[in-house]
Amino acid sequence: MNLPSESPQSEAVRLPSLRARVVSHVLLPLALTWLLGTAVIVGVAYYFAQTAFDRALLDDAYALASRVRLQPQAKVQDTPPALMLELSNSEMSTVLFDRSEAIYFAVLRPDGSVLAGHPGLRAPKPVGKAQSRFAEISYQGKNLRSVVVVLSQPAPFEVVVAQTLGSRNELLHSVLMYSVIPQILLLLLLAVWLRRVIGQELSPLTQLQLSINQRDALDLTPVPVPTSSSDLAQLGRATNALLARVNHSMQAQREFSGNVAHELRTPLAGIRALAEYGLAQHDPVVWREQLQRITVSEARASRLVEQLLALALSEESEADLSTEAVALDAIVQDTVLRYLPRADAAGVDLGVLGLEQAPSQDFRVQGNAALIEGILGNLIDNALRYGRAPEGSVSTVTVELAVSEATVTLSVVDNGLGLSPEQCQRLMQRGVRGQASQQLGQGAGLGLAIVAKFAEVMGVYFTLGAVPGGMGLRASVNFQAAP
Questions:
Q1: Does domain 324-480 have CATH number 3.30.565.10?
Q2: What's the mean per-residue pLDDT of the chain?
Q3: Which position has the higher pLDDT, 401 or 42?
Q4: Could you give the maximum distance between any two Cα atoms of the chain, in Å?
Q5: CA angle, corner 259, sides to 253 and 261, nearest 5?
Q6: pLDDT, tens digit, for every residue of 185-223?
Q7: How far apart are CA 59 and CA 61, in angstroms?
Q8: How many angstroms separate the Cα of 449 from the Cα of each of 377, 384, 397?
Q9: Which CATH number fits domain 218-320: 3.40.50, 1.10.10, 3.10.20, 1.10.287?
Q10: Nearest CA to 352 among 415, 407, 416, 410?
Q11: For residues 104 and 375, what is the distance between their CA atoms, to the nearest angstrom?
Q12: What is the pTM for the complete model shown?
């Protein structure tokens, strides 16, 4: 049993918001850094506090050691010296006074016997030449901090002083509390402030999202571009650029559909009328005439479909068109040979001029062979249709090639009636037909528009104007010479 997949909306709901991700990415490193800094501060503070406590403990040990004296010598001079601690109980309380901690001490002879103090109080002795040593010991079920001082005057002896750890632990807790808790509070306040500020900074992004979500599918007008930051402004501009490209593509599709619907209506209706008229007749001669007319109408419709498809394909391939070095003279020769039978049938002198003026390699241009062939074919077709000379003159259509330092110019020249500059400008627009086209009842106003579009796609310069010093029309395309 196949379970329905989750919608993108439900999947997006489970994902964390951008604000939460930014806040977490900022606070986590900051919290770790602060905690590490707090641990270092607490460690340093505790170390110096321990040093101060140990110094006080060592001072107590030296204070006790300073009150150790030799007993008066016995009459027997060869007896070993005896030590004594010259401290009364009140003096002992003064030397070892502490309001919050219990202090233990012991004065030991070299053999380990107790001279004074608490029996059983022992601690690790100093190592090497050291006179004192601190250590953690356990005495009477209590954990103590101890110091051992070894002295040799007036006779060898040891002093052990130990103290309970209440004050030290309390100090450590105080340092932790007064260091960590304020840091945590500051971190929480910073998190609230960052969440608020980041939410304000990202609010234009939310507005942009709402603006896009609330739009109709056909509304491709630019969205308001947020200006709070360069990143959001770039996102808004990129979104508007995408909408512009989609709008351009949809306009091209609408224009293509409109052109197909409008331009094919007339030839298809004519073909249908001719077929119905022929079917209503019984004379084979009439049938032949109608079939010939149907053939002419079908050729016109096919030509129109080819032009519309070529125009649509050129607009679709505008973004990713690749150009290369193309032999322009070979394209001219092939295209002229293809149109030569039609020109002979129409009584038009079709020729080429300029091929003999330069070597073949000089006619290599940077462009697309299919688009160049489409440009030349449409220009020749337009000249054969509408570039007829006045009555009594021979109609000529000449394809000219001219080479300069960095450009190669391809021109199609006829000796017809010509056009004014305003008419030339209008005829390069899609769907605009000239007077000759209207009089002859043919053409869809797409030929020169296709040439202009192909030239624009390849990045070449297309001009349309009168022939200098005479009648006719010159259509020229300037190509960049291939390296």
A1: yes
A2: 78
A3: 401
A4: 174
A5: 100
A6: 888 888 888 888 887 877 777 777 788 888 787 777 888
A7: 5
A8: 13, 17, 20
A9: 1.10.287
A10: 410
A11: 111
A12: 0.44
